[in-house]
Design the sequence.
């Protein structure tokens, strides 16, 4: 733990994992897009003898701004308010397990984060995105402890226009090149939780 300016204890917890995300993007202007989505995220913390796998169901709503550099590359940025629901979180030491959302647990299930990120589409088929999610809600059920879930996500998505796919699933949106898009993406998050 390290002391912050206000004299509070601040601690950082690294969690690694993956996410799978689906969404459908619609353009609302030449460069502006909105993409509601659904994301399944798994992260794990292993520290000393404690293992703590966690699963979340996230609902991001990305607002993007993108511009094309010819037919090969599109660059853009996005902001993504994200509603999150904790599905499971169990801290395990040897044969003992504590449900972090249960009566003896420390977490609230509901969470809200705001993501800021950038993306690069290549030949209208592959998207690489990088974003940072800022935790807004105090997830702690314990008085005098503030706990927020922040994290970095790096993802690679398959991108396609709606007319090319009979079904629509996706990870982000695709502004500027089509009226609507569907995408399927996977990525690797490094979630950082903290007490302050």
Sequence:
């Amino acid at each position: 733990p390290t002391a912050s300016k206000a004299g509070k204890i601040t601690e950082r917890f690294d969690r690694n994992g993956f996410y799978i995300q689906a969404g459908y993007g619609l353009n609302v202007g030449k460069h502006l897009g909105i993409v509601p989505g659904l994301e399944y995220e798994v992260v794990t913390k292993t520290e000393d003898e404690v293992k703590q796998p966690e699963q979340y169901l996230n609902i991001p709503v990305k607002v993007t701004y993108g511009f094309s550099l010819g037919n090969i590359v599109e660059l853009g940025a996005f902001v993504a308010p994200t509603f999150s629901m904790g599905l499971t979180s169990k801290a395990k030491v040897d044969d003992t397990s504590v449900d972090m959302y249960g009566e003896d647990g420390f977490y609230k299930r509901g969470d809200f984060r705001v993501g800021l990120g950038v993306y690069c589409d290549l030949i209208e088929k592959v998207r690489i995105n990088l974003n940072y999610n800022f935790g807004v809600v105090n997830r702690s059920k314990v008085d005098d402890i503030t706990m927020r879930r922040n994290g970095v996500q790096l993802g690679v998505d398959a991108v396609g226009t709606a007319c090319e796919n009979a079904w629509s699933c996706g990870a982000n949106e695709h502004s500027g090149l089509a009226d609507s898009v569907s995408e399927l993406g996977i990525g690797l998050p490094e979630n950082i939780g903290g007490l302050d």
